[in-house]
Amino acid sequence: MSTDYQQAREVLGARLRELRLSAPGGRLTGTELAEQYGWNKSKVSRLENGRQTPTPDDLRKWAEAVGRPEVHDELLARLRGFESHIRSWRRQLASGHKAVQDTHLNAHADASVFRGWEPSMIFGILQTPDYARSIFTRYAELQRSPRDTEAAVRSRIRRQEALYDSSKHFHLIMWEATLHALICPPSVLAAQLDRLAGAVGLDTVELGIIPLHASLKIPPATAFWIYDDRQVIVENWHAELWIDDETSVDTYLRTWQTLRESAVYGVDAHNLINAARQALGSR
Question: Quick one: which of 2, 156, 168, 258 is 20 to 30 A from 17 by CA?
Answer without folding.
Answer: 2
